[in-house]
User: Fold this.
Amino acid sequence: MRQIVYVSAATNPLSDKDVSDIVAKSQFNNAMADVTGFLLFNGTTFMQLVEGPDRAIDKLLDRLYTDKRHHAITVLEDNMIEKRNFPVWTMHHIRLNGDKQHRRETLARNMPIDLKSAVMRVVTNFTTLN
Ligand SMILES: Cc1cc2nc3c(=O)[nH]c(=O)nc-3n(C[C@H](O)[C@H](O)[C@H](O)COP(=O)(O)O)c2cc1C
Assistant:
């Protein structure tokens, strides 16, 4: 099993509807492909964690790299893992309107094994820019 964490830049301004469309499509595809994870978007930057079978992640990365809605994909973590961090999230959109404590708790509640503390820090410090 492989887990990737990356950040990328939105190419054009995206509406809430655009982001919900990405999340809905992701949830559908990921459920079929046994991929799980979460997505954050602050108006300009995405941060996403995806985890699942190697081949499913390879295929997803190919699609992500050619998706014109974002660019400048920078992989922060690329690790082989024994177990998923987020088995129940086909693709959870972590909203940025709550406070950091709430976000940390939501993650912790849905995370049977610990997430790398550096990743946890990036997630909890991600803020809305608009
Ligand atoms: C920031 C971002 C995150 C995405 N995350 C996923 C994902 O987790 N799973 C997925 O299947 N597609 C994801 N996509 C969409 C893919 O790039 C691609 O458009 C989609 O998988 C194509 O699906 P289709 O071949 O079924 O039309 C994401 C796109 C963006 C811009």
About this structure: DSSP finds four helices and five strands in the chain. Residues 90 and 111 are 13 Å apart (CA to CA). Residues 8, 22, 25-26, 29-30, 39, 46, 48, 50, 60, 63-64, 67, 69-70, 91 surround flavin mononucleotide (CB under 6 Å).
